[in-house]
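A note on notation is needed here, since sequence and fold are reported together in a single record. The reader may check this reading against the record printed directly beneath this paragraph.
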Amino acid sequence: MDLSVASASFLAAAVRNRQIGCLELLDYFLARVERLDGAVNAVVVRDFDRARDRARALDNGPITGKLHGVPMTLKESFNVAGLPTSWGVPENHGKIATSNALAVDRLMQAGAVVFGKTNIPRMLGEWQSFNANYGRTNNPWNLDTTPGGSSGGGAAAIAAGFCGLEAGSDIGGSIRQPAHACGIFGHKPTHGLLPLYGHALAENASTTDISCIGPLARSAEDLGLALDVMAGPDAVETALQFQLPPPRTAGLRGLRVAVWADQPGQSTDPAITTALLGLANMLEREGAIVDRTARPAIDVDAAYNTSLRLLAAALSGRATEADRVVTRARSKELGPDDKTANSVLFGAVDMTHAEWLGLNEQRHRMRRTWGAFFHDWDVLLCPALGAPTWGHMNEGEVWRRRLVVNGQDISYNDLLFWPLLTGVMHLPASVAPLGQTTSGLPFGVQIAGPLFGDRTTIAVAALLERAWRGFTPPPGFA
């Protein structure tokens, strides 16, 4: 089998069965990075020498865990001792981490060989991966387009066959959108399931609301493998352990599927909607119970407004007073008649704690409504984002950018609807390949499930991988 398209599970089994050595496997991927990454610019921090030392040590020792010998990369925002963590901010370009993020320790304890870190946007702040420190990452499907963000470098690395596995993060779609844009698999877990400690510029002990870390991979099986390795509370804080419920289904027959293919007022590319409805038809043919109109009993517009304001509050922890001054000016510039997501986000700049508590109460009431919805339905299928990938837009301020989606000229940040729909509710969501545009660009389906229903969304991703569409390598990278 071509190792560049192999799953991490396959690679781990090959090492475990002595079909290939850890160093030999690592050198295969390092050679691909050195040969092909010049055009992509995905692996922007390289730690090849230490990775080779680790691979040699693993070759000379016992099998250490589920990822023994699997070469992998990490999003630049994870701390790795001895490597820079800048979040794409020039002032932090030379900042070297002195310890590993907790999730990184867990991956390495499971035998993973981390050889580099992948590109991001500045402060993980958008759906492209460009910053002044490392430049621009290109989508291997079309180098003139973005691989997404903020885990775009990692998604590009997986699609191009540069590594076996990637760890990313997500607050407004930053795992799900790059997986969608690069034709791979990704999983945003239930909030709090995977520890965030060490995924920060500062040594924060607290967890940012909505923010999650999670895997990107070439197979759904790998999402579950990585989840098993990384999940669970920080042992420094508690001896509590999570035992996730098993998947609700082992097959498509009898699977209860709600399909939310589009939403009035939220522009969604017709190729995505058409493919999602085609997937619904296939599921029915295979014996699934499918409803194309089932929705949680919420006011969708009000829920979106609440979600935007909660996202703004979560991101405010990264903001300085100077940032807030700029945001107030932006809000004033837009004016009271502006109805874009930008207006809601900027208008939340001076939110009080009492206001946040009210929004959080609204969120938890909606979470109960979502919980009732998932008593009737095993999963919800919806777009990962309203548009496939697009051409690079790296000039000027992010909030001023615009895209044409389904014939409508929209504000860039108005694409937040589909990622926030479930993300702010803390629900798990997996992304699997759904289809391609007429120009050959991939896009994905978001598979959302109940709180702590991570194994169900991943299991459904695996079913779709077999029955609908799996990973295919981009031309020129096979």
